[in-house]
Amino acid sequence: KAGVTQTPRYLIKTRGQQVTLSCSPISGHRSVSWYQQTPGQGLQFLFEYFSETQRNKGNFPGRFSGRQFSNSRSEMNVSTLELGDSALYLCASSDHRGRGANTEAFFGQGTRLTVV
Amino acid sequence: AQSVSQHNHHVILSEAASLELGCNYSYGGTVNLFWYVQYPGQHLQLLLKYFSGDPLVKGIKGFEAEFIKSKFSFNLRKPSVQWSDTAEYFCAVMSSNTGKLIFGQGTTLQVKP
C-alpha cells in the first residue's frame, strides 16, 4: 500500500498570499487530519475530515480551512499568510470511523511552508 | 481540556544506557495512546500503541511502554539505546471517539556513540 502523500514538499510564499496544500491518504482511509509543527508550539491539531465532513477543529483562526473530496483526498488552505504561519504541515490518515474505534494514524512527509 | 505532558524536553545519553521518557495525559474518557518517533529529516513513525488489554506494550526497535491508568501515564522505555535512536519522540493521545491526536511537546533524544 502506498503511504500518505503530501504535495508540495516545500513552499515559499510572501506575506499576504494564500496557499493550498494537498494530501492523499492511504487507500481505504476516510479520515484525514492536519497538524502544524513548529519548534515553539510543537505539533498542533488543525482539523479532521471524515467522508467529506469536518469532524473536528482545532484552535486556529479562520484563515486556516480545509476540505475533503469524495476520493478522501484533502486540501488545506491558508489565506492572508503571516510570518508565523511558517511551519511543517503534516497530514495523517486513518480508518477511524467513529465512536469506539481503535486505530492509528499514518503520517505523510509534510509540507514545509516558509512565509517571507 | 485534553492535554499531554512529556517530562523531558532534551535527553542526552551514552550508547547502551537505559532510557525512560515520561508522558502523562489529561482526558476523562477512553483513549488510545501512542508514541511516535521523528528521525532527522523524516516523517513521524509509530513506535508503539496501546488500545486495551495488557498495559505493557512492545513496539519496534526494542521500545516498550507501560500504561498506568491510575497515574494517567504512558512512559516509554528502552533497556539499551543506540546511536541510531537519536530522534525526537512524541507521546500522543487519541480519543476513541474521534481521529484527533493530541501530542505532547516532544522529547529530543541525543545518543552519544
Helix amount of chain A: under 10%
Query: Counting H and I runs of at least 4 residues, what is the number of helices of chain A?
Result: 0
How far from one another are the termini of chain B? 41 Å
SS class of chain B: mainly beta
Note the quaternary state here: heterodimer
- In round numbers, the mean pLDDT of chain A is 93
Describe the model.
The complex is a heterodimer of chains A (116) and B (113). By secondary structure, chain A is an all-beta fold. Helix content of chain A is 0%, strand content 52%. In chain A, strands 2, 4, 5, 6, 9, 10 and 11 form a 7-stranded mixed beta sheet that branches. Chain A has a 4-stranded antiparallel beta sheet with strand order 1-3-8-7, with no helix packed on it. In chain A, strand 7 and strand 8 form a beta hairpin. With 113 residues, chain B is mostly beta strands. In chain B, 0% of the residues lie in helices and 55% in strands. In chain B, strand 10 and strand 11 form a beta hairpin. Classes of the chains: A mainly beta (116), B mainly beta (113). At the A-B interface, strand 4, strand 5, strand 9 and strand 10 of A face strand 5, strand 6, strand 10 and strand 11 of B.
Secondary-structure blueprint of this entry?
The complex is a heterodimer of chains A (116) and B (113).
Chain A: E1 5-7, E2 10-13, E3 19-24, E4 31-38, E5 42-50, E6 53-57, E7 64-68, E8 74-78, E9 87-94, E10 106-107, E11 111-115
Parallel strand pairs in A: 2-11
Antiparallel strand pairs in A: 1-3, 3-8, 4-5, 4-9, 5-6, 7-8, 9-10, 9-11
Chain B: E1 3-6, E2 10-14, E3 19-21, E4 23-26, E5 31-38, E6 45-50, E7 56-58, E8 64-68, E9 73-78, E10 87-95, E11 101-103, E12 107-112
Parallel strand pairs in B: 2-12
Antiparallel strand pairs in B: 1-4, 3-9, 5-6, 5-10, 7-8, 8-9, 10-11, 10-12
